[in-house]
Amino acid sequence: MAVVTPRWTARLSTGRTYHYVDEKPTNNGDQIVTLLCIHGFPDLWYGWRHQIKPWVHRGYRVVVPDMLGYGKTDMPTETSAYSPKNICNDLAALMDHIGVSKAVVIGHDWGAFIGARFALWHPDRLLSLAILSVPYAPPRTQYFPLEQVVKLYPPFGYQLYFASEESAAEIEAHVCVILGTHLYRTPNARINAMLQVGRLREVLLNAPITEGCLLNEKEIAYYLSNYERGMIGPLSYYRTTQLRFEEELAASLPSKPRIEVPVLFIGGAQDRTCPQSAIESQRALIDKITVVMLQEKGHWLMLEAPETITTEILFWLKGLGMVSGGHQQFRL
User: Fold this and answer.
1) CA distance 115 to 99
2) Residue 129: how many CA atoms within 13 Å on its side-chain side?
């Protein structure tokens, strides 16, 4: 496994130090389109490894940070640092640092949620938005604690464990198990059952799942080498439910904001963490949305269908006129 893509570290205007990939095409010029890719839990910039070079070869500049708390990026201990507003401010500062005024934002999992919030906090910094596996959900008008959300949709039960105080130490003690046997897996009955309240912790500590891993040993080793600082950062995202409600309320973000840039949603038809109702509700909130559902695929789309993800996003960008190099006519 060779990790040979150009990587950098920068201290941003927000005071945070971010590690990121920044790969440019050979025809780098004024008309280049930048793709800002945002990973989720428990990923790294490395989660986009199958897409980076194909997109660069098609003329795009691809920027992929290790998100706050991950890899070689800062890992603050205070939960408030991981609120969507603060993370979005970091991303805007990263764009400032690399001299990009607007980008196509592409996110998976938590990266999809953050990407959609970026469209609300910094709408002037997007050309378009692609979100994978997590549909857009607008700011709430009243606070719903995570426990209440789980009652409404039980497959979100695993999030209660990630948000709990004990999860960091237990996952750190079993990080090889959770990466190699619990996450990054093709969908099946055991994986779906593990989403329910209490089941993830039970399986983690007592009954590892051995079938269907999407990572090989070298890939697992690379992830493990980036988790030596622990899991408090990555898990902090799950502990921001009330924080993000309060910051959105304080900023008077509308309860039904319309995302006006073109949006692509790609989901796996077998992903139990992606409710069909949420997929459909996006249509009322986004004027220009394209929905692509991948049959027989689950949550880890960049691994389960790497070529499909690469080509679907290229096809969508071409349809918008966002073709890097030469004369562009964006159809927004």
Assistant:
1) 19
2) 31
* Residue with token string 């989660």: 47
Q: Cα(first)–Cα(last) distance of the chain, in Å? A: 40
Do residues 154 and 199 touch, judged by C-beta distance below 8 A?
A: no
**Position 278, amino acid:** A
Q: 308, 300, 297: which is closest to 264 by C-alpha?
A: 308
Instruction: For residues 42 and 60, give the distance between their C-alpha atoms in angstroms, rounded to a whole number.
Output: 26
**110 vs 266: CA distance, rounded Å:** 14
Per residue of the chain (332 residues), give pLDDT as tens. Answer: 445 577 899 999 999 999 999 999 988 777 899 999 999 999 999 999 999 999 999 999 999 999 999 999 999 999 999 999 999 999 999 999 999 999 999 999 999 999 999 999 999 999 999 999 999 999 988 999 999 999 999 999 999 999 999 999 999 988 887 776 667 888 876 677 778 888 888 888 886 666 678 988 899 999 999 999 999 999 999 999 999 999 999 998 876 667 889 999 999 999 999 999 999 999 888 989 999 999 999 999 999 999 999 999 999 999 999 987 644 554 55
Amino acid at 184: Y
